[in-house]
């Protein structure tokens, strides 16, 4: 009788551990998907920041060139 109870308890314990293992594997998969989404979002935002930085650098350079042109040609404006 005691041996039968011991095997039953061990079977319940093994089933519980298997269920826990399946739950942890599912949680791990969900977390991996979330990590992949966050990485993708990070790369998207990093690329967007690089584009904005390039645009700002180009705009700054354009303003500097226009200011230099205005300074040089300030007295050379011909009014028809």
Structural overview:
The protein is 90% helix and 0% strand. It has one domain. The protein has one helix at 2-73. The longest helix has 72 residues, at 2-73. The chain is built from one helix and no strands. It is mainly alpha-helical and 80 residues long.
**Count of all domains:** 1
Please provide the count of β strands. 0
Our count of helices gives: 1
Question: Structural class of the secondary elements?
Answer: mainly alpha
Strand content: under 5%
Please summarize the sheet with the most strands. none
* Shape designation: rod-shaped
Low-confidence stretches: none
Q: Helix and strand succession?
A: H
Please estimate the helix content.
over 70%
Q: What key attributes describe this structure?
A:
80 residues; mainly alpha; 1 helix
What topology emerges from the helices and strands here?
Layout: H1 2-73
Structure, briefly:
The protein has one helix at residues 2-73. The chain has 80 residues and is mostly helical. The protein has one domain (2-72).
